[in-house]
Write a structure and sequence with these properties.
The chain has one helix and 26 strands. It has about 300 residues and is mainly β. A hairpin with a 3-residue loop joins strand 21 and strand 22. The protein starts with a strand and ends with a strand.
């Protein structure tokens, strides 16, 4: 299915008024194989819009591209991000991404033991990140939690994520006991720590780790089959939002000029750990694809409700 980018009014004023706007279709492909790159993230920087494509890697932008003043960032796991001015896309039909190879590290563990990182009591989680609030818009692409090891080198075995989920009733009035959980779909990313900037650095694994859940508030994700080795003493686990119809919802947001508005939001909302640490360990990837500390809940809270089990 093609993903149609519907721009906000502030962005559409740059497009020539027309009864029938042209639809400019693009396919995101691998630069070598020329095959479609599945599940690509398309970001419009100034408009602060992002959407995920389907497996065919196709998306559309309506209007006259030559009159638009914005930048498109195309990103996919295992590929270098691709930036291009919308004006420069006029006349193009495909965008080529260059694949990179994540560094692989072999590790032999003698008498290895499981090590639990960032443990918390899930029933104590009451705050969540990933949804709009009355005081702040949530327009980040990823949130990442930093973890620390006593020594370099460990196998990543499992992660647990606490998410906000409501039970929805799709039945008739007389059948109120028949309910089901809100579905969610997202990707897990694993990064080394950037020793210079302090946030997430190079990606440790370029395999796509996609999680889909319909039943749980506390997600148990087994990563043993991916054989991910953490090369250093610090790493990040990130949640990447998939902005598609599966995850789409609405949040009521108060704006001073216009009052309350129903704005699009995307699942999942990630829990905030009830345990305060000595430093802020949450980082966010903004619409410009820049990593920055996520300070919304600080100084009261310092960590996401993401628990990790490694073998070291």
């Amino acid at each position: 299915m093609r993903c149609l980018l519907t721009f906000l009014h502030c962005f559409l004023i740059l497009v020539a008024a027309s009864a029938q706007q042209k639809l400019n279709a693009f396919k995101v492909v691998d630069s070598v194989t020329k095959k479609p790159v599945p599940a690509v993230s398309i970001t419009i920087v100034r408009a602060k819009l992002a959407i995920s494509t389907e497996k065919d890697g196709i998306f559309e932008i309506p209007g006259d591209l030559t009159k638009m003043r914005d930048t498109v960032i195309v990103s996919a796991q295992g590929y270098y991000p691709y930036r291009i001015l919308i004006q420069s896309m006029n006349g193009m039909d495909s965008l080529k991404l260059i694949k990179y190879s994540a560094s692989t590290v072999s590790l032999k563990l003698l008498q290895a033991k499981d090590l639990e990182l960032n443990n918390f009591i899930k029933s104590n989680v009451v705050h969540y990140a990933g949804i709009h609030t009355e005081t702040a818009m949530f327009d980040y692409l990823q949130l990442a939690q930093q973890f620390y090891l006593p020594k370099a080198g460990a196998y990543l075995k499992k992660i647990n994520i606490s998410r906000l989920a409501f039970r929805l009733n799709y039945q008739l009035e007389a059948q109120r006991d028949a309910v089901e959980m809100e579905p969610t779909k997202f990707r897990v990313r694993v990064y080394e720590a950037d020793t210079i900037k302090g946030g997430p650095g190079a990606e440790i694994s370029n395999e796509t780790i996609e999680v889909e859940d319909k039943e749980s508030q506390y997600l148990n994700i087994n990563l043993s089959d991916y054989k991910i080795v953490i090369p250093g003493q610090s790493f990040f686990i990130a949640v990447e939002w998939m902005r598609d119809f599966t995850n789409q919802g609405y949040a009521s947001v108060y704006q001073e000029r216009s009052g309350y508005k129903q704005l699009l939001s995307y699942r999942p909302a990630i829990g905030i750990s009830p345990i305060k640490g000595n430093r802020l360990n949450i980082w966010s990837l903004d619409i410009k694809h820049q990593w920055k500390p996520y300070t919304y809940f600080s100084p009261d809270y310092t960590d996401l409700a993401i628990r990790v089990i490694v073998q070291q």
